[in-house]
Amino acid sequence: MVVFFRGLRNGVLTSGWPKRADVYFDEFPAAVEVLPGHGHRDLLAGASAAVEACPTEAISIGQAPELDRGRCILCGRCIATAPDWFAWAHGADTARLRREMLVVTPTVGSDDALDAVRAELARRVARLRRSVHLRHVDAGSDGSDEWEIAALTNPVYDLHRLGIFFTASPRHADILLVTGIGTAGMVEPLRRTLEAMPRPLVVIATGADAVSGGLIGRGYTGGTGVGAILDVDVWIPGSPASPFSLLHAILLALGRVSATAGVAS
Ligand code: SF4
Question: Which atom of ligand 1 lies at the shortest distance from residue 53's CA?
Answer without folding.
Answer: 5
